[in-house]
Amino acid sequence: MSLRKAYFLIFLVLIIDQLSKIYVKTNFVLGDEVKVMGADWFRIHFIENEGMAWGTKIPGQYGKLILTVFRIFAVFGIAYWLSDSIKKRHSTYLIVSIALIFAGAAGNIIDSVFYGIIFDDSHGNLATLFSPEPYGTWFHGLVVDMFYFPIWRGTLPTWFPVWGGEEVSFFNAIFNVADMAISTGVGILLFFNKRAFPKTA
Q: What's the predicted TM-score (pTM) here?
């Protein structure tokens, strides 16, 4: 796979990711939810988080800044891995997966770096793009998530280990296009491992 095609894939993911986030941010109040085509199992549910999986955050005054800076360094590492893999003509499976992981990581970094200074607050009102009164500062933006698939909700039987008798929802994670790109890239590496990393004679 050529560098140009990898760039195109990254650009495409970033455009879709940012357009979907900007649309939700400017058309939904935080916590708003709509059912897609009336389906209970597919919803757009607007939330914001610090940018780690499952809403986890690093505690402390500088936790968000540390997370954002770490992710920026990680993206530079991924970019080098991508460039090196293309130069060495590695498997297309590997290059596509790295490109997707890079695009996903970059998409969420854009939120973290810029959203705090270009949007106002989404609590109780629609956010304004390029607001004169932004809700945060550089490197302290919140990541926008919206895709929600509560495929099944119910109470687990009492004999079920650990969560027996509790009411649960599957799948209860809320995510965005960037998260999907990262998950897809990692999935390719896991499920097509032998093709991504073919043994050389």
A: 0.90
